[in-house]
Design a protein that fits this description.
The protein is an alpha/beta fold. It contains 39 helices and 28 strands. α10 packs across α27 and α27 packs parallel to α29. It binds thiamine diphosphate (TPP) and magnesium ion. The site of magnesium ion has 8 residues, from loops. The site of thiamine diphosphate has 19 residues, from α7.
Length: about 1000
């Protein structure tokens, strides 16, 4: 059987020379043996044989020029290995019909085993130009006579036919490396280009100046120039023409600015008169109020920034869920549909974050045509190129198209239009396609002559194409993202688009205009200092009307209020409804529900056993009866409704589904059937904690972004909460989110069978790190009810900018009645639950939280009955809150050495009580250790340090030494240590409970 060996895909190289022929007719060669050596202008490479066999014909000789697909040799072989299949497939599409004729039998056989794979459509040489022309002419005729949709129909038919015939289809994920919108279809900007250009120059200058100035004060301050320099036009066009602000008549578009482009936003606000020169001089100096924060931080600039984005990847996913939540509010009838848009800016390097692209299919599935991503492809990230060996724009296009987005590529600026028009053979487009980003970056670092040589010079025809242009003309060939016309046209198309989200993928130059100091060089990102020469260059590059002296003094440039530029700038924003970014809230508070809604939870459950999770779900069910609260509740569940007993909500309030329910659910007969509806209230997120948390953040900040106070309640496996989405929770704190996070099935030993990765013994520690997160670990349903009601009151009625983290357990037990007057202590973090005071003189202060409080209660009983040790039992609902109070009081006292000492709440509770403290929780010891400094008593913590594991609760508590037996033994031992009783008691208990003294510490097991 005769086989062809052809030149495989050799990347960028075309017409490379054969410098060695390594086989001769009659040679028996093995697969991978080298056949020829090729040499390009950069390197030489051997071409290995994909098959084994005997060389029967040589088709080339030394000195020949070959390209991908060129026939090298023929060989005889008798086996069909993988290489054979691959080559056969490639040859099928690359060779002239005559060649295919000759190999008919092989093709017939290979068709049976053909595997469909994508091939790159644009890199092959045309083997039959006449035939190609005929096809294209036919296509043109159809487009002209019957229109594009008929052409599309025919192409689809042809593709289907080819597919069913087993033909390998071209890769249609990407389109050619040119702009999506052809010049003739570009909608023109109505703006005054001259003024806009000047304004852009001033914004650029002021942004750079503020960073340079800050670093003159101290190089500690940092900042970025290169990022905004690359994105200025992308922001400017939005600001001048597209982004509508919130005002009394309109809800406002929402813009997620790329975090480290913040200097550009400040620089614009400075021209708008919203930020003073004094503030500009205080960039990154926030400690004394009045400074400007490094990045968008609503916590630090609550009237300015709306969205914390600088932790990369969070902005894109939060933006997606924001757009989805906006549709949710509209579909639920809570907001009117005003055609508002969510714009999300991200860096090309940022797209590597899994969060950035992780939810793009949801955006398409939900048909979020209110969402526009703008990816600033300056081809660089911090250290170097984003995809030096490939093309980030093409890669992103493939991902977004594959996910179902409308993709608008803005690659080339208008100066390229005439060249592309003159490119009749498609050679320029081919060159654009084959050039990789590493080369594109280098070209912008090295100047026009280099571009002529390296880009156009590769093909004589292209060199000829630019022969009448000077090097400077070539240098001016701009990138799409710097061309206001191209950007305007893309944004215009994006806002018009219906039915799917849009991504504008814009090509830019990192450090645009910075010249030698930082234009398109690998160190651009870090460039925060410009010397005098650099600044003068930058001024000249953008014609900023400053004298040399002013440049040396790094003065800002702000034209007079009556100048045409400032008037224009303000008029544009006036037309668009106001300034952006700006943060405000007109939301009305929600009156906290009356006490009677919670009344039943204050009673004992008698013999009825239930978990705190069940109690909470019941509470929510009750709340759904409150007319103020009910419509504002947003239950968010990442596919665990059944785990938490919440499936009843499905039918009751429906699962949000923008398309309603197109099927009859399998369980339609049941009460809790799976009901999806357009007005559904539950956000059933599927298995995505990051997505669910993004929904929660959107709902928790609806009071500012949509002027409607919502009450999001996100219920999740506590282990997959802060640990998994900690960065989102931190951003939520920054964004001043208000709502409930419920860490269900909490506790290292309470969630029994699930094992190491599920059992949470530290989420409260993680929660405690977020300054405005208020967290509780309740044991009884009345505690849960008191805490929950207070949360509603503080956050949604009183509008405190805090959020609640409450753990809920899945252990069933009966719940007592609320002790008289316990409310205050429950909320402050501890209250006296029970006192044993009958027996003796020895006393201990026994503290517990969550389910382990019950072990402590059982231990207290044993201590009293068997060892005559009395206990005061404290239910500690929040070690975290006690710690906060303790820290604050301690600080105050230290700052007032002569003043009257204040007492922490812990001290107030314990000061008149005797005995050491034994604190026991289902969390790591550092959780309860937090309050150690706030009492002078001896303090012993028991907790669940170490990896969890699957077993019964009883065994787990024994393992972690938080069961009642260990509490008894350790308490007796602690009392002995404090010399309050003899050590024989502890020894007796250790023996009686079979406690193994030689067992290793659980963190080591
Ligand atoms: C999660 C996270 N990791 C790292 C950083 C630090 N960082 C800030 S900007 C940057 C490079 C950004 O590159 P790109 O996304 O391409 O943005 P460009 O500045 O090029 O527009 C890095 C690594 C960060 N802000 N967030
Ligand atoms: Mg970048």
């Amino acid at each position: 059987m005769s086989q062809n060996i052809v030149v495989p895909d050799i990347g960028d190289f075309e017409s490379v020379e054969i410098i060695e022929v390594l086989v001769k007719i009659g040679d028996q060669i093995s697969k991978n043996d080298p056949v020829v050596t090729l040499e390009s202008d950069k390197s030489s490479v051997e071409v290995p044989s994909p098959f084994s066999g005997k060389i029967s014909e040589l088709k080339i000789k030394v000195g020949d020029k070959v390209s991908k697909g060129s026939l090298l040799v023929k060989l005889e072989n008798d086996s069909l290995d993988n290489g054979f299949e691959e080559e056969t497939k490639k040859n099928t599409i690359q060779q002239k019909p005559s060649a295919i004729e000759k190999k008919k039998t092989i093709n017939l056989e290979s068709k049976k085993i053909i595997r469909k794979t994508f091939v790159q459509p644009f890199l092959h040489d045309d083997l039959d130009a006449v035939e190609t022309r005929e096809w294209i002419e036919s296509l043109n005729a159809v487009i002209e006579n019957d229109g594009p949709s008929r052409a599309g129909y025919l192409l689809n038919k042809v593709m289907s036919k080819a597919y069913t015939a087993g033909v390998v289809l071209p890769d249609t994920r990407t389109t050619p490396y040119i702009n999506t919108i052809p010049p003739e279809l570009e909608v023109k900007s109505p703006g005054d280009q001259n003024i806009e250009k000047k304004l852009r120059a001033y914004v650029r200058w002021n942004a750079a100046a503020m960073v340079v100035k800050a670093n003159k004060i101290s190089s500690e301050l940092g900042g970025h120039i290169g990022t905004f320099a690359s994105a200025a036009t992308l922001y400017d066009i939005g600001m001048n023409h597209f982004w509508r602000a919130k005002n009394k008549d309109f809800g406002g578009d929402l813009i997620y600015f790329q975090g480290h482009s913040s200097p550009g936003m400040y620089a614009r606000a400075f021209l708008e008169g919203r930020i003073s020169e004094k503030q500009m001089n205080r960039f990154r100096q926030e400690v004394d109020s009045g400074g400007l924060s490094s990045y968008p931080h609503p916590w630090l600039m609550p009237k300015f920034w709306q969205f914390p984005t600088v932790s990369m990847g969070l902005g894109p996913i939060m933006g997606i869920y924001q757009a989805r939540f906006l549709k949710y509010l509209i579909n639920r009838g809570l907001l009117k549909d005003e055609g508002r848009k969510i714009w999300v800016f991200l860096g090309d390097g940022e797209t590597d974050e899994p969060e950035s692209l992780g939810a793009i299919s949801l955006a398409a599935r939900e048909k979020l045509d209110n969402l526009i991503f703008v990816v600033n492809c300056n081809l660089q990230r911090l250290d170097g190129p984003v995809r030096g060996n490939g093309k980030i724009i093409q890669e992103l296009e493939g991902s977004f198209r594959g996910a179902g987005w409308n993709v608008l590529k803005v690659i080339w600026g208008s100066y390229w239009d005439p060249l592309l028009k003159a490119d009749k053979t498609g050679l320029l487009m081919k060159r654009m396609n084959e050039c990789v980003d590493g080369e594109y970056q280098a070209m912008k670092a090295k100047g026009g002559a280099y571009v002529r040589e390296k880009f156009f010079g590769k093909y004589p025809e292209l060199k000829e194409l630019v022969s009448s242009m000077t090097d400077n003309d070539i240098w001016k060939l701009n990138r799409g993202g710097h061309d206001p016309h191209k950007v305007y046209a893309a944004y215009h198309a994006a806002v018009q688009h219906k039915g799917s989200p849009t991504v504008v993928i814009a090509k830019t130059v990192k450090g645009y205009g910075m010249g030698k100091s930082g234009e398109s060089i690998n160190t651009t990102h870090q460039q925060k200092k410009l010397d005098e020469q650099d600044l003068l260059y930058y001024r000249d590059r953008f014609n900023v009307p400053l004298t040399d002296e002013q440049v040396k003094n790094i003065e800002y440039y702000k034209p007079d209020e009556n100048s045409e530029e400032i008037k224009y700038l303000k008029e544009r924003r006036k037309q668009l409804g106001g300034f952006i970014p700006e943060r405000s809230s007109l939301a009305k508070p929600i009156e906290a529900p009356p006490k009677d809604i919670f009344e039943s939870f204050m009673q004992s459950t008698g013999d009825k056993k239930m978990s705190t999770t069940m109690a909470l779900v019941r509470m929510l069910t009750n709340l759904l009866r409150d007319k103020n609260v009910a419509p504002r509740l947003v239950p968010i569940i990442p596919d665990e409704a059944r785990t938490f007993g919440m499936e009843g909500f499905f039918r009751k309030i429906g699962i949000y589904a923008h398309e309603g329910q197109k099927y009859e659910p399998e369980d339609s007969e049941q009460l809790s059937s799976y009901k999806e509806t357009k007005s559904g209230q539950v956000l059933e997120e599927g298995i995505t904690e990051a997505g669910a948390m993004s929904s929660w953040i959107a709902a928790a900040t609806a009071y500012t972004n949509h002027d409607i106070e919502m009450i999001p309640i996100y219920i999740f496996y506590s282990m997959f909460g802060f640990q998994r989405i900690g960065d989102f929770a931190w951003a939520a704190g920054d964004a001043q989110a208000r709502g409930f996070l419920i860490g269900a099935t909490a506790g290292r030993t309470t969630l029994a069978g699930e094992g190491l990765q599920h059992q949470d013994g530290h989420s409260h520690i993680l929660a405690s790190m977020i300054p405005n997160c208020v967290s509780y670990d309740p044991t009884f349903s009345y505690e849960m009810a008191v805490i929950f009601r207070e949360g509603l009151r503080r956050m949604h009625e009183k509008n405190e900018n805090i959020f609640y983290y409450i753990t809920a357990m899945n252990e069933n037990y009966s719940h007592p009645e609320k002790p008289e007057g316990a409310d205050e202590g429950i909320l402050k973090g501890m209250y006296l639950l029970k006192e044993y005071k009958k027996k003796g003189k020895i006393k201990i202060q026994l503290m517990g939280s969550g389910t382990i409080l019950r072990e402590a209660m059982a231990a207290a009983k044993i201590l009293s009955e068997e060892y005559s040790v009395d206990s005061d039992i404290w239910s500690v609902t929040s070690f975290n809150e006690l710690r906060k109070d303790g820290m604050e009081v301690e600080r105050k006292n230290l700052l007032n050495p002569n003043g009257k000492k204040e007492k922490s709440y812990v001290e107030k509770c314990l000061e008149k009580r005797d005995g050491p403290v034994i604190a026991v929780t289902d969390y790591v010891r550092s959780f309860s250790d937090q309050i150690r400094p706030y009492t002078s008593k001896a303090f012993y913590s028991l907790g669940t340090d170490g990896f969890g594991r699957s077993d019964t609760r009883k065994n787990l508590r024994r393992f972690f030494e938080v069961d009642k037996e260990h509490i008894v033994a350790y308490t007796l031992s602690a009392l002995a240590k404090e010399q309050l009783i003899g050590s024989e008691n502890a020894e007796k208990a250790i023996k009686e409970y079979n406690i193994d003294k030689n067992k290793a510490f659980p963190t080591k097991i």
